[in-house]
Amino acid sequence: MTPLPLALSDRFGRRIEYLRVSLTDRCNLRCVYCMPEAGVPFENLDNVLSFEELVRIIRVLASVGLKKVRLTGGEPLVRKGVPELAAQLMAIPGLEEVTLTTNGILLERDAQGLWDAGIRRLNLSMDTLQEARFEKLARRAEFARAWAGLETALAIGFSPIKLNCVLMRGINDDEVAAFGRLTQERPLSVRFLEYMPIGEVSPAQWRAHYVSNEEALATLQRLWPDLETLNDSPESTSRNFRIPGALGTIGVINPISHKFCDGCNRLRLTANGKLVPCLSDNFEYDLIGPLRAGCSDQEILEHTAAALVHKPIQSDFEGRLSRGGSLRMMSQIGG
């Protein structure tokens, strides 16, 4: 048998230390950039990785250098037992951190359980601070519950809490200043994300709503000329700033205008057991099939290495759009 590799790397020498795991493709919102209003056909539950299977995969990858896991969806908290899963993951040798991305609606219910399991960092999707606009963007009247979840997480002590805001021209790009002021008042990390051409979006639709984060940054610098630039880690996907005296920070994540692929250490695992090396590429590698056929731990590593052969040196969202766009919605890939 081939000995286990010392580390998982792609063909460009980038070490893979971070796995984004989609627990479900289901969600209790229908955000305009993520899922059609009518929803999508959800994966048959028999085709979704069990928690036992997830723990095994992550344990095997942690043995060769995986350090961080982020639990995503869909909305991960619509799946029962996430705090218990998190506790199992936190006990895996070598795994240093488990984090969660959520829309916050069920966070008031689950925040304490997540904290008790060992999770300390959270990402919340929050595209607007206006209740009426939230309903328009998310197609559900759930702003109050999402905000209550945020308040609960703050009270318990999660830190950092990152608010992810997808900026879209003519929809919410007028709230940059409001989010900036929020960081002055609360210990939050607001992060502006560029709108990506994923799912059922035409080139014309995407171009009409795409806002370069350089515009957002220019707005912030105009309002706060003394905006401080913070030092970022090499693998960081965001450039980070602070308004002097603010309790929180502001970040910009620019997958379109300012690619950060050189330091990419990420791999995605969908709820139905597909490895996705790059968000901008339609390629996916089936892992659930071999897993349920009885593959060994060594074979899990070999399949993962085979998937990583297809990790491109750089993302190509615009090229993907010209080739017909995404085969999956964002909710199906994992946020």
UniProtKB/TrEMBL annotation:
Entry EC number(s): 4.1.99.22
Cofactor, free-text remark: Binds 2 [4Fe-4S] clusters. Binds 1 [4Fe-4S] cluster coordinated with 3 cysteines and an exchangeable S-adenosyl-L-methionine and 1 [4Fe-4S] cluster coordinated with 3 cysteines and the GTP-derived substrate.
List of residues binding [4Fe-4S] cluster 2: C261, C264, C278
Binding site for GTP: R20, R70, T101, K162, R266, L267, R268
Pathway assignment: Cofactor biosynthesis; molybdopterin biosynthesis
Entry-linked SUPFAM superfamilies: Radical SAM enzymes
Catalytic activity of the protein: GTP + AH2 + S-adenosyl-L-methionine = (8S)-3',8-cyclo-7,8-dihydroguanosine 5'-triphosphate + 5'-deoxyadenosine + L-methionine + A + H(+)
Residues binding [4Fe-4S] cluster 1: C27, C31, C34
GO molecular function: 4 iron, 4 sulfur cluster binding; cyclic pyranopterin monophosphate synthase activity; GTP 3',8'-cyclase activity; GTP binding; metal ion binding; S-adenosyl-L-methionine binding
Domain annotation Radical SAM core: ranges: 11-226
Pfam family name, one: Mob_synth_C
The entry's keywords: 4Fe-4S, GTP-binding, Iron, Iron-sulfur, Lyase, Metal-binding, Molybdenum cofactor biosynthesis, Nucleotide-binding, S-adenosyl-L-methionine
One GO BP annotation of this record: Mo-molybdopterin cofactor biosynthetic process
Keyword S-adenosyl-L-methionine assigned: yes
Magnesium listed as a keyword: no
Cofactor: [4Fe-4S] cluster
Residues where S-adenosyl-L-methionine binds: Y33, G74, S125, M196
Assembly mode: Monomer and homodimer.
Task performed by this protein: Catalyzes the cyclization of GTP to (8S)-3',8-cyclo-7,8-dihydroguanosine 5'-triphosphate.
HAMAP family membership: MoaA_B
Name of the protein in question: GTP 3',8-cyclase
Source taxonomy: Bacteria, Bacillati, Armatimonadota, Armatimonadia, Armatimonadales
